[in-house]
Amino acid sequence: MDVRIRDLFLCVLSIVHDNSFQAEQASAVTAEIVTCKKRILSIMEKGKVQKDEELLRMQYFMHTLQVFEAEFLTRAKMWDQIPKLVQEIVGSGPLALGTYEAVADILWVEKDCPISGG
């Protein structure tokens, strides 16, 4: 695994448990998550991942990063970014349902989450 991606995972895991984390910091971490997702997609698109188990591992990385991104978008109250993330998740392959459920759980418990009805 790319050292930067691994370091981001470790950073995010420590931050998730830190209740004093501020919205500005969440915004910065979200930007790093997006960068990591782009790097993973680039690796996958270049065909550097050949084995099925490696491809599955990359998909799990994407799943985890998408869940972390939802968490930090929620902390930063960047509600306008959530629909774009949900659209990304819908097209993300076999782990999409689990990712969607995790994001829904994050949003469900957030008191400030806006609800738009049609």
Structural description of this entry:
It is a single chain. The protein is built from 5 helices and no strands. It has 118 residues and is mainly alpha-helical. α1 runs antiparallel to α2, α2 (23-45) packs antiparallel against α3 and α3 (52-75) runs parallel beside α5 (96-109). The longest helix is centred in the middle third of the chain and has 24 residues, at 52-75.
Classify the beta-strand content into a percent band.
Answer: under 5%
Quickly count the helices. Answer: 5
Shape: globular
Average pLDDT number: 81
User: What is the β-strand count?
Assistant: 0
Nearest-angstrom radius of gyration? 14 Å
In short:
This protein has 118 residues and is an all-alpha fold. Helices cover 71% and strands 0% of the residues.
Keywords:
single chain; 118 residues; mainly alpha
Write the layout of secondary structure elements.
Blueprint: H1 3-16, H2 23-45, H3 52-75, H4 82-90, H5 96-109
Helix pairs in contact: 1-2, 2-3, 3-5
